[in-house]
Structure formats: structure tokens, C-alpha cells
């Protein structure tokens, strides 16, 4: 590759009838990094992945993956990438070992590579059982193993942990971290914002088929300031919660979110000079009884809700 970017697209567009799925998508993913693509349902994440992996062709714009044009050099791109879609593509009637040997034959990969991946993903004990007997997490791990048979330069993961329990999700996360550490570039679409926060070096927020915001998780969080939350006693009057909301509104300049059941009030503080002692003093002056007060960095969920115009 002559570029330091493993994925580079400019002005990608795609229509499906009257639906404009992508409206000029510009994407630049440096080699050896994990890029998280986030966005509400229908934002264009999966369409972007399908174009970048040569499964569909763009109506306009260009894209290069691993240094090769996805339209003119589609066959070369396919040899250099791995893809794991939203649903496991393994054959349930074959064993785990047979699935990997079949894929290895199709991809002209060494047969021993499949056995190596069975061990890597903790599937050795189940290797000779039909894949239909596997749990959801085991099937996803087998699917991921199949996508790694050719040691891809770029790995595309389209919502790889959807529907998995926390333990299985953690196993996939560990595998992604290992791949990134070994130099594989990973493009990850996900609706689990914690997943992007944990794994991504850079996050791209897509909305309406365009890039709405991009940056590291830390930089995106900094764009919306800090998050203030105050906790009142459970027996506090409703008026006290309303008074807390007034104080937070004045201090932060953003509309507070109230949870009457938990007796909490929270708001985003854009002013970086706002301090916790000042918040507590103002609440005390307003006669608001406070059990706890915190000033913290926002979660990626809160960033998503504020920065992306539409929500799923």
C-alpha cells in the first residue's frame, strides 16, 4: 500500500429505489486501528460495509480497501479482507472443524490454520460437534474464526455481538483486541455504544447516510462537556426534585433529565469551569437535600443521543 489508510472512501453514494442510503460518505481508517461505525437504524452503516467489502457497488464516489479500488479491483480486495456479518454463516449440519476445513478449501488457506483458530477461540472441545448444537456465542466465534482463515489485512465486523450474552460478548471483544494488537485493521459496526467505547480507536457517527461526527471516544465526549447527576433522599418531596432541576438548568444551560422513581436529576454541563463544590453550594442555597452529587465524563450513549439527530 502506498497510503497509510487501510480504508479510504470519498463521496460514496448508494440508492435503493427512492431510499438514499448513503449520501456522500467520506471515511478514512488508518492501518492497524479499530474504527467504530455508529448510527441509528437506517443510518447507512451496513450499506457502507457492503460497498467496502465489494458485496454491492456504489452509485457514485470511490473507495479503496487495503490499497485497492473496491470496484475495479474487487477480486483483489476480497482476497485481502475478512467479513463477519450480522448473522453467523456457518453450516449447522457440519461440525465446527468441518466448517473451517470447508472454508479453508474455498479460500485456499492451509488446513492447519483452521485447527489453530479452533484453539484460539476456545472451540477445541466442541470442534467435532455439529454447529447447530453450539450456543449463539460459540457460533459467532466460529464465524469469526472462518473470516480469519486468510489472515485478512482488514476485517469488517457488522454488529458481531448482537444478541449475545455479556460473557460471549466479552470473548468477541478479547478477540478483536488481539487482532488489533497484531496489526489487523478492524472496521466495526455496532449498536452497543459500550462496545465502541471499549474497542474503537476512532468513532464515526453516521446519520442520514453521511458522517455526522468523528473522533476518538474521548474527543467526542469532550464535545458535550461533563455530566452532572444529583441524588435526593427517597422520601424527598417532588418539589425538591423540581428545585434541583431549576438549579441544574441555571448552572448547565441544558434541560435536566429527571427520574422521579430514583429521585435523581441529571444534566449536561458544557462549561468546563463548573465544579462539584459550586453545584453542591447552589443546591444547598436552594434548599435541595442531596444524598450524592457527581460530575463525570459523559458515556458514549449520552454523546450519541446529543450528537446524532435521529435515534433508533
From TrEMBL:
The ABC transporter domain extends over 7-233
Q: Which controlled-vocabulary keywords does the entry list? A: Antibiotic resistance, ATP-binding, Cell membrane, Membrane, Nucleotide-binding, Translocase, Transport
Q: Where in the cell is it found?
A: Cell membrane
Q: What are the recorded GO MF terms, alphabetically?
A: ATP binding
Membrane topology, record value? Peripheral membrane protein
One Pfam family recorded for the sequence: ABC_tran
Keyword Cell membrane in the entry? The reply is yes
PANTHER family linked:
ABC TRANSPORTER ATP-BINDING PROTEIN, DOXORUBICIN RESISTANCE ATP-BINDING PROTEIN DRRA
Q: Which family does it belong to?
A: Belongs to the ABC transporter superfamily. Drug exporter-1 (DrugE1) (TC 3.A.1.105) family.
Entry protein name: ATP-binding cassette domain-containing protein
The species this protein belongs to is Streptomyces durmitorensis
Organism lineage reads as: Bacteria, Bacillati, Actinomycetota, Actinomycetes, Kitasatosporales
Amino acid at each position: 500500500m502506498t497510503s497509510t489508510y487501510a480504508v479510504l472512501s470519498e463521496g460514496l453514494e448508494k440508492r435503493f429505489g427512492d431510499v438514499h442510503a448513503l449520501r456522500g460518505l467520506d471515511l478514512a481508517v488508518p492501518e492497524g486501528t479499530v474504527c467504530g461505525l455508529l448510527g441509528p437504524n437506517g443510518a447507512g452503516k451496513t450499506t457502507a460495509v457492503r460497498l467496502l467489502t465489494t458485496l454491492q457497488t456504489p452509485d457514485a464516489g470511490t473507495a479503496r480497501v487495503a490499497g485497492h479500488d473496491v470496484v475495479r479491483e474487487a477480486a483483489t480486495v476480497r482476497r485481502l479482507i475478512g467479513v463477519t456479518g450480522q448473522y453467523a454463516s456457518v453450516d449447522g449440519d457440519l461440525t465446527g472443524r468441518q466448517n473451517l476445513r470447508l472454508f479453508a478449501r474455498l479460500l485456499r488457506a492451509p488446513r492447519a490454520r483452521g485447527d489453530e483458530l479452533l484453539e484460539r477461540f476456545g472451540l477445541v472441545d466442541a470442534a467435532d460437534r455439529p454447529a447447530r448444537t453450539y450456543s449463539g456465542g460459540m457460533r459467532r466465534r466460529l464465524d469469526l474464526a472462518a473470516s480469519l482463515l486468510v489472515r485478512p489485512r482488514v476485517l469488517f465486523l457488522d454488529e458481531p455481538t448482537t444478541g449475545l450474552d455479556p460473557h460471549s460478548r466479552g470473548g468477541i471483544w478479547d478477540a478483536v483486541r488481539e487482532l488489533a494488537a497484531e496489526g489487523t485493521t478492524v472496521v466495526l459496526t455496532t449498536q452497543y455504544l459500550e462496545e465502541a467505547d471499549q474497542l474503537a480507536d476512532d468513532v464515526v457517527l453516521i446519520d442520514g447516510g453521511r458522517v455526522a461526527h468523528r473522533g476518538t471516544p474521548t474527543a467526542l465526549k469532550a464535545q458535550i462537556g461533563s455530566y452532572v447527576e444529583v441524588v435526593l433522599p427517597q422520601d424527598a418531596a417532588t418539589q425538591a426534585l423540581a428545585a434541583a432541576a431549576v438549579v441544574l438548568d441555571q448552572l448547565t444551560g441544558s434541560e435536566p433529565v429527571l427520574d422521579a422513581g430514583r429521585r435523581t436529576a441529571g444534566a449536561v454541563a458544557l462549561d468546563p469551569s463548573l465544579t462539584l463544590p459550586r453545584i453542591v453550594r447552589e443546591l444547598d442555597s436552594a434548599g435541595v437535600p442531596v444524598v450524592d452529587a457527581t460530575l463525570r465524563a459523559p458515556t458514549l450513549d449520552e454523546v450519541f443521543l446529543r450528537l446524532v439527530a435521529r435515534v433508533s
